[in-house]
Design brief:
It is built from four helices and four strands; from the N terminus they run βαβαββαα. It is of the alpha+beta class and 86 residues long.
Length: 86
């Protein structure tokens, strides 16, 4: 499987929720914490076009934030996305 990358901050409830979903599926992901790291947040914003966290990628596909991740799950598309990325 290609990398799953999630940009987060420590106390963000949406970040925690997104990670819980990925954890429940046994997905290994690379977490990039942007707390007090403006350069990393700028890197994330440049890639995502958004400044909010979390920002999630599956391979080269930008899922978006927690709401978009949950929408993929509700629509039954997340597992397929995770498998197709690998």
């Amino acid at each position: 499987m290609q990398d799953v990358v999630i940009y987060t901050t420590r106390f963000c409830p949406y970040c925690i929720r997104a990670k819980q979903l990925l954890d429940s599926k046994g997905v290994k992901y690379r977490e990039i914490a942007v707390d007090n790291k403006p350069q990393l947040r700028e890197q994330m914003a440049a890639k995502a076009g958004r400044r909010t966290v979390p920002q999630i990628w599956v391979g080269e596909f930008h899922v978006g934030g927690c709401d978009e991740l949950m929408a993929q799950e509700r629509a039954g598309k997340l597992d397929k996305l995770l498998k197709s990325a690998g």
